[in-house]
Design a protein that fits this description.
CGI121/TPRKB_sf; PF0523-like; 9 helices; EKC/KEOPS complex subunit CGI121; 51% helix; alpha+beta
């Protein structure tokens, strides 16, 4: 379990990397259904899936993810969320365009997701073990060390979504580092250039 602490707020974010994921379609449907159910039952189900389910193959580094989480926390604390929750705001922050539907479709869980980063933003009093148990109850998959992200990232898709196909050639470590810097900067600057 990775943890991200933010000194400017009382928030902490926890993240688990799952690969492979055996139930992506069920997770997606569960999120959709939870949004429709009303009353106490709906509140309970929404709490059960109160995570950001991120397509891990589009995340280039720990800093890329951390920057998006930070942007979501800042937007939430300033009352300037573009989406309904801080968890969906992470997906919005990751997407290079301002299209919320596109962000959820690209960066959220899909029926074809093979890997997921599951993130929960909470306050600093949350129990790491409780959060991990809740994540594992929703995702049927294998938890792998965060260092495995480097082998999961689909660099060609990242380049395509950020329109870097023509500008960036090659597949070496130097090229990946260059792409990582661009996508991190894109996330960091998104709220400034809107």
């Amino acid at each position: 379990m990775e943890s991200f602490r933010f000194s400017h707020t009382n928030n902490v974010a926890f993240a688990l990397l799952f690969y492979p994921v055996n139930n992506p379609g069920k997770i997606k449907q569960r999120i959709i259904d939870a949004a429709k159910v009303e009353g106490t039952e709906g509140d309970h189900e929404r709490d059960t899936v109160n995570f950001s389910f991120i397509e891990a193959s589009l995340i280039t580094s720990r800093l890329h993810l951390e920057t998006a989480i930070n942007q979501a926390i800042i937007a939430d604390s300033q009352g300037s969320l573009r989406t309904k929750t801080a968890h969906s705001e992470i997906l919005f922050a990751l997407n290079p365009t301002n299209n919320i539907t596109e962000a959820i479709r690209r960066y959220g869980v899909s029926d074809k997701s093979e890997s997921l980063l599951v993130v929960q933003i909470t306050d600093s009093s949350a129990s790491v073990s409780d959060v991990e148990i809740k994540m594992k109850e929703v995702v049927d998959g294998t938890v792998v060390p965060f260092g495995e992200l480097a082998t999961i990232t689909e660099w060609d898709r990242v380049k395509k979504y950020h329109k870097l196909d023509k500008e960036v050639r090659g597949k070496g470590e130097e090229t990946r580092s260059f792409i990582d810097n661009i996508v991190i900067s894109s996330v960091a600057m998104k709220s400034v250039i809107q």
